[in-house]
Write a structure and sequence with these properties.
CATH class: Alpha Beta
Strand content: 5-15%
Structural class: alpha/beta
Order of helices and strands: EHEHEHEHEHHEHHHE
Number of domains: 1
Number of helices: 9
Strand order of the largest sheet: 3-2-1-4-5-6-7
CATH topology: Rossmann fold
Distance between the termini: 32 Å
Radius of gyration: 17 Å
CATH superfamily: NAD(P)-binding Rossmann-like Domain
CATH architecture: 3-Layer(aba) Sandwich
Shape: globular
Number of strands: 7
Length: 246
């Protein structure tokens, strides 16, 4: 296996942390971004205590100039980005007739526009190197929609549209571009939901439970492997059978 430089946006979150750790265990050099320096330093220290030495750089993925500077910082520290996981995301849930323009724009900027902001500074290097792996972390709700999430569902569906176009443009350059669409995953945020509510969600899932962050990370590791060079433009649904679309 060749050690690569990997950038995981939103790596400090639950799924992001699992992805960072999985890539590091595979031998890659892993960087992630932050907006809250104190929180990021605490996370880095906790990961180091577990044997993981991650590079952290400041960066707001919703802002093109900040994302550009973030990528440049990663390149300066580790080298050209060869694996990119667009994982950063937020929610601003409310029914559409109550949604403000700001609630719409914040979600679109962070979840979808970030794919442009972060991928644009790395794609030329990947094309020149004739190798690259790009993975978007979308959502089951980008596939089936969700009450109160018109902004979030639109952003997550848009991520896969981005994937399949980018995959076609860059296949001949040895770059694969894929999407992973998780269902409901047991992150700290979900653990904060009342247990009876979590039980109702789990009851709708054929497998009978919520997912684990490591299960999402496993799929990312699969898609960025050297041997996955013939998988591009795919959307891998990981949801315990909760949504079974084509």
């Amino acid at each position: 296996m060749t050690a690569r430089v990997a950038l995981v946006t939103g790596g400090i979150g639950g799924i992001g942390t699992a992805i960072c750790r999985s890539l590091a265990q595979a031998g890659h050099k892993v960087a992630t971004n932050y907006r809250d320096a104190a929180k990021a330093e605490a996370w880095k220290a906790a990961q180091k205590a577990d044997g993981f030495d991650f590079t952290i750089v400041p960066g707001d993925v919703s802002d093109a100039a900040s994302a550009q500077a973030m990528v440049e910082a990663v390149v300066a520290a580790l080298g050209p980005v060869e694996i990119l996981v667009n994982n950063a995301g937020i929610t601003r849930d409310t029914t559409f007739h109550k949604m403000t323009a700001l609630q719409w724009q914040e979600v679109i900027n962070t979840n979808l526009n970030s794919c442009f902001n972060v991928t644009r500074p790395v794609i030329d290097g990947m094309r020149a190197a004739k190798w690259g792996r790009i993975v978007q972390i979308s959502s089951i709700n980008g596939q089936k929609g969700q009450y109160g999430q018109a902004n979030y569902a639109a952003s997550k569906a848009g991520m896969h549209g981005f994937t399949i176009s980018l995959a076609q443009e860059n296949a001949k350059f040895g770059i694969t571009v894929n999407t992973v669409s998780p269902g409901y995953v047991l992150t700290e945020m979900v653990r904060a939901v009342p247990e009876d509510v979590r039980a109702k969600i789990a009851a709708q899932i054929p497998v009978g439970r919520l997912g684990e962050p490591d299960e999402i990370a496993y799929a990312v590791g699969f898609l960025v492997a050297e041997q996955a060079s013939w998988i591009t433009g795919a959307n891998l649904s990981i949801n315990g059978g909760h949504y079974m679309g084509w």
